[in-house]
Amino acid sequence: MAVNAEEFNSQVRYPYHPEWIADTDPSPVGHDRYDDRYKILSGDFDLTGAIMKRGREFIPSPMARRSYFYLQLISTSQFPKNHYTIRRGVNSYLLASTFSGKGELQYEGKSYTLEPGESFLIDCRKPHQYRAASREGWGYHIIHFDGFAMRDYFSRIEQGKSVKFAFSPESPFPSLLEKLFGVNAEQSGRNEMLSSCLLTNMLTEIMLTLPDYDSEEIPRKIREVRDYIQENFAGSVHLEELSGRFYISKYYLCHEFKKYTGLSPNEYLITVRLNKARGLLQFSDLRICEIGELTGFASLNHFFYTFKKHEGISPSEYRKRWKNTNRLID
Q: Rounded to whole angstroms, what are the CA distances from 142 to 99, 115, 209, 263, 317?
């Protein structure tokens, strides 16, 4: 049944805000513009009898939109057997995790059954529908979120051919989810930073469930170039050197490397260097200048400029924030 804004909010019986709909731009939120004028989604819902155990809405700060993974809505809810949602065009990603009953998701031409302990992650800009699929209904945790890097994360996740995930008993995913709700039980200026950290770790757990397609899909020569960059990132690595070392034309190398990794050779090199730098900032007491040198940056200024360009903050500020965040989460 189609519902209007008043019917929608009264039906739900808890503060579930009208969705995040942009006027004309359905593209992922990786751009600078963000439409704060919430408008109700035109779609079909049956949310009668829903019981929210906990939940909260968020209006992300400009800093969060530019630099973090940021929350839009979270809730833990129990839905009766008649529950369903059909929609599209929402500027949000939805991570849902089942804790009781059974649900069914239809997305991108596939159908998924969701039982306790199983989760799904979808791009809500695309048509999707989900419903309760058992007599006892369906209970699940809802996390609507987005972020400047989410398009790239989700592109890699989609390569796994499934948006449904189950985690090993050793996975910290359930505790990360609980920490996310716990952090946001009260308002604090630190919540956005802490939530972004937790969402990053949750996405990492999801990606660790994905099959490794490298050996099957990436050509041997491109794998060799990739491995060479990973092993020699601290030195001087140039396109001309890669072209000569692996007997590939520069044009073909750039084209094929980006085709299979999503990045140019130089972008991949910078990504490896920044990943190493972040690790040293987090887990070592090395000076900033030493970290820049160890990770292949030509000068301290170059390290500062590149790091701030990609992270939005300086290396020293990153180290300070990470240590504060890690202490608060623990």
A: 11, 15, 20, 32, 32
Indicate which CATH number applies to the domain containing 222: 1.10.10.60
DSSP per-residue letters across 83-143: -EEEE---SSEEEEEEEEE-EEEEETTEEEEE-TTEEEEEETTS-EEEEE-STT-EEEEEE
User: Are residues 29 and 148 both part of a single domain?
Assistant: yes
Contact 111, 162 (CB under 8 A): no
Looking at the fold, whether 150 and 102 belong to one and the same domain comes out as: yes
Note whether 255 and 323 are same-domain residues. yes
Task: Specify the pLDDT at position 100.
Answer: 95
Domain that holds residue 313: 214-329
Amino acid, res. 311: E
What residues are paired with 114 via a beta bridge? Answer: 103
pTM of structure: 0.61
Are 203 and 122 in a shared domain?
A: yes
Contact present, 230 and 272 (Cβ < 8 Å): yes
CA distance 30 to 147: 7
Q: With left for phi above 0 and alpha for psi between -120 and 50, is residue 53 left, alpha or beta? A: alpha
Integer Cα distance of 187 and 71 in angstroms: 13
- For 281-292, what is each residue's pLDDT tens digit? 888 889 999 999
* pLDDT tens-digit series, residues 10-23: 444 333 333 333 33
d(CA 325, CA 306): 23
CA-closest candidate to residue 72, choices 19, 119, 24, 26: 19
Do residues 123 and 79 touch, judged by C-beta distance below 8 A? Answer: no
Tokens 């969402």 found at: 199
Q: Can you say how many angstroms the Cα of residue 149 is from the centroid of all Cα atoms in its chain? A: 7
